[in-house]
Amino acid sequence: RGTFGLDFTAGAVPFLNFDMMGLIPAATPFSTNTPTGADFTRWKAPVEVNVVNTALTLDGFAAITRSIKLSANVGITLRNLIGSRYVNRGNHAMTGQIVIETPALATKDYMATLRTSALVALSLIHGTATGNVVELAVAALQITDITESEEDDKQMWALDVACTVNVGSDDFTIISR
Q: Distance between terminal CA atoms of the chain?
């Protein structure tokens, strides 16, 4: 069992990271067999996160984005009790950070979104060829903090976010097509 995170950073290949915990079986705990015959022919070459391959909208606005990083934060603990030993999967609370160029407040006012704790939608589509497209959809994302910085003489905002469960929707959805 485990948890995972997503990282879509401009100029890099996107990736999922996994943090897993398992138990070593009591009978034959270590195998000396080496897997053979792996077939990677159906694997697709990844494409870079950039203006051609990636589109992101936050609350319907196409924000100029440096990166989006999300973590599922699944609680994983070893339960080692009398009569039972297992890996417990606890709750999760997906959080993350989206770094964007600061939009003009007249164009998009994320400060008002922060002040009102409004839930907004996030859509990320990465890839252009069938079989190599990943979509991330968050129906109810909340901006929990905004930190200002500067990059190449441009004002940037780091938006701390939380994906929430809203009535009738998952906190996030990943679709590959």
A: 26
